[in-house]
């Protein structure tokens, strides 16, 4: 597998105070939306525009958005999902840099300033990920997200493992010139919009990271319940992701393709679906999980959590769906304390 990054044409630099477009996609998060909008209005970096795309909310979101009409561009569209909401927002954006913000999350006040500095200092970067702080419904800190994110040419990791260590939706920023090459975001696939962007855009340049928590990720009832134990759907999600990677590789003239046998989550899910695979298959999945974490450079904590989740699903298939449905921590809490 070649590991040479064939640099795609991108602007060699951007002006020191570029316009940043922040796109909020919202569906029925009126109770959190005010804090998301205010976190953009209160940025220390001032050259920004805010676009809020509402996906036909049925709560009080419209009234809240209209109350800020002098500070943002509001777009109300028929319900079509996150991917189409982001496509709409990007189509209306004018900035050289584009940041995404889920309506239930909010930014640190210095986020835009530090993202702009990162892109200005590193013209080779087409995407920036940064760390985040997890908060509860009331915005109180309850933990830190990933603290180790990959930087540089991540195409070899994508073509070998189907993944790398990156940020989540509200922790992603893009250079517009590169983002446009990946558009439109597919809207009829199992894989999420942010998954699509984080595996396709890196084929057009290097990715950067800021090892500071510049966003607050809210964990609450709705997104806790979003965990899915529909194996067919989850397997399709991994297959879609592999197709995105392989198509992007072909688009930039690379011969390498991702082999699904190297996608550890795909192997885990298919083993769980079959219910009783040979021990050689189980041991290979566990071994691949360790190799994947080592090559990606995951922290010991992330490595252990992934290994435990995959091991339970592979070794004890009767417990696997509960792990997928509750998450590893929820599953362990239920087993240990009955909660």
TrEMBL record:
Keywords: Transferase. GO terms for molecular function: transferase activity. Pfam families: Glycos_transf_2. The keyword Secreted does not apply. It comes from the Bacteria. Residues 21-181 form the Glycosyltransferase 2-like domain. The keyword Transferase applies. This is Glucosyl transferase.
